[in-house]
């Protein structure tokens, strides 16, 4: 009778549980992937500007400089930013506008100084 009782009672299974064990990572490319489709090209474009409105671009591929100190116009920077993303364009246009306002203030100050110099010259010539 003890044999019947032991056969009818559920016993824990010695087989592996239904959940799969995590596979150990394999080296190399996974099967079915293509090396050509997974390669990426890293290019870094850096655009810098001064408060005077002078802009320049530098291009780097990995650790190799392709071009450095290439002068670009503020309008070209603005157009490029617009092509990339509207949010970038708004931020960059704000920086360009601030630089433009500074330059306009400098021009106004120089014009006032020039007018004073003309008046002084007119008094000398008198």
UniProtKB/TrEMBL annotation:
Biased composition (Polar residues): 1-12
Sequence segments annotated as region (Disordered): 1-40
Source taxon at top rank: Bacteria
InterPro entries: DUF6319
Name of the molecule in the record: DUF6319 family protein
Gene source species: Pseudonocardia adelaidensis
């Amino acid at each position: 009778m003890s044999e019947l009782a032991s056969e009818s009672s559920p016993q824990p299974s010695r087989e592996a549980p239904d959940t799969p064990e995590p596979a150990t990572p394999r080296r190399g490319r996974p099967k079915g992937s293509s090396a050509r489709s997974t390669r990426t090209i890293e290019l870094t474009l850096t655009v810098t500007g001064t408060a005077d409105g002078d802009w320049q671009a530098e291009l780097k591929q990995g650790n190799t400089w392709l071009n450095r100190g290439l002068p670009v116009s503020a309008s070209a920077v603005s157009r490029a930013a617009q092509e990339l993303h509207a949010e970038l364009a708004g931020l960059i246009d704000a920086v360009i506008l601030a630089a433009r306002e500074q330059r306009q203030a400098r021009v106004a100050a120089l014009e006032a100084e020039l007018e004073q110099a003309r008046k002084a010259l007119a008094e000398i010539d008198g």
